[in-house]
């Protein structure tokens, strides 16, 4: 049978499938545009509704791909200039009353699959976990830098944040040849050119990936601390000053991981 005759046969066969079978086909990963074109001539309401859902899903996917390309604009510009190992850096945990500040540095490949990284604060825990799996699978390098509550108290939260970022960068292998950082400029970092980008976690691809990696790491750490220091709700609030956390402070006083220079923690010393 000739290829075009085979195609006509397959198209006719597909059009005669049950609506449930067509619905399943349109949600599969290998939909043939020729089949979709043929199905548009199918007058059954169920088929047309399935096509509407297919079109909406396609439009959503195209919008995501477009957003990914927007997030990659700065990295693409840098690669055109010859940079290969571009690190994104972000931190999580500047605002909590307890626990460390955690920074992450991530280097992604130029041919990174179309994974939609976005500001970690905008994502559910389940979605972040899925994206962590993608980072683990595809990233050239990813690291974590930590500054404890005690170290935060010894300096201040900004200095501790910078130190956590420096620690994450120092661990990267290969070393980055360009660094993109969310909002912070590291005066003590001289190994590569750097840029501080305001709201970088929502506008720059590698910074968004670092934001997700840091947040998931810190949330897991705070859940472990919840077992060590119950009563503050660390597993739910990650150390932020929620009602449950403040009630725990009033009842139990500060734990060993509380930031004792932060109000209202110091009120309970």
UniProtKB/TrEMBL annotation:
Keywords: Coiled coil, Cytoplasm, Endonuclease, Hydrolase, Manganese, Metal-binding, Nuclease. It is found in: Cytoplasm. PROSITE patterns: RNASE_H_2. One of its GO terms (molecular function) is manganese ion binding. GO terms for cellular component: cytoplasm; ribonuclease H2 complex. GO terms for biological process: DNA replication, removal of RNA primer; mismatch repair. Manganese or magnesium. Binds 1 divalent metal ion per monomer in the absence of substrate. May bind a second metal ion after substrate binding. It comes from the Bacteria. Its EC number is 3.1.26.4. It is an enzyme of class 3 (hydrolase). It catalyses: Endonucleolytic cleavage to 5'-phosphomonoester. Residues 84-269 form the RNase H type-2 domain. Pfam families: RNase_HII (PF01351). SUPFAM superfamilies: Ribonuclease H-like (SSF53098). Residues 54-81 form a coiled coil. Its main location: cytoplasm. InterPro entries: RNase_HII, RNase_HII/HIII, RNase_HII/HIII_dom, RNaseH-like_sf, RNaseH_sf. Its cofactor is Mn(2+); Mg(2+). A divalent metal cation binds at residues 90-91, 182. Gene3D superfamilies: Ribonuclease H-like superfamily/Ribonuclease H (3.30.420.10). HAMAP family: RNase_HII_B. Endonuclease that specifically degrades the RNA of RNA-DNA hybrids. Belongs to the RNase HII family. PANTHER family: RIBONUCLEASE H2 SUBUNIT A (PTHR10954), RIBONUCLEASE HII (PTHR10954:SF18). This is Ribonuclease HII.
């Amino acid at each position: 049978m000739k290829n075009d005759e085979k195609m006509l046969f397959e198209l006719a066969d597909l059009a005669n499938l049950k609506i449930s079978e067509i619905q399943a086909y349109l949600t599969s990963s290998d939909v043939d545009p020729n089949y979709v074109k043929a199905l548009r001539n199918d007058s059954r309401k169920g088929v047309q509704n399935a096509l509407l859902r297919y079109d909406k899903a396609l439009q959503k996917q195209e919008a995501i791909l477009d957003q990914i390309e927007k997030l990659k604009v700065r990295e693409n510009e840098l690669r055109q200039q010859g940079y290969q190992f571009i690190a994104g850096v972000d931190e999580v945990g500047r605002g909590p009353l307890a626990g460390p500040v955690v920074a992450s540095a991530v280097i992604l490949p130029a041919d990174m699959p179309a994974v939609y990284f976005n500001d970690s604060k905008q994502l559910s825990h389940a979605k972040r976990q899925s994206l962590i799996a993608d980072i683990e699978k595809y990233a050239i390098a990813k690291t974590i830098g930590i500054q404890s509550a005690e170290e935060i108290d010894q300096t201040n939260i900004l200095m501790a944040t910078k130190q956590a970022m420096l620690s994450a960068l120092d661990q990267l292998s290969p070393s980055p040849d360009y660094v993109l950082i969310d909002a912070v400029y590291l005066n003590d970092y001289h190994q590569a050119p750097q840029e501080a980008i305001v709201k970088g976690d929502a506008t720059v691809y590698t910074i968004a990936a670092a934001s997700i990696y840091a947040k998931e790491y810190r949330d897991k750490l705070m859940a472990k601390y919840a077992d060590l220091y119950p009563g503050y709700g660390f597993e739910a609030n990650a150390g932020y000053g929620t009602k449950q956390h403040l009630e725990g402070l009033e009842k139990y006083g500060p734990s060993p991981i509380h930031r004792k220079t932060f109000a209202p923690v110091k009120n309970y010393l």
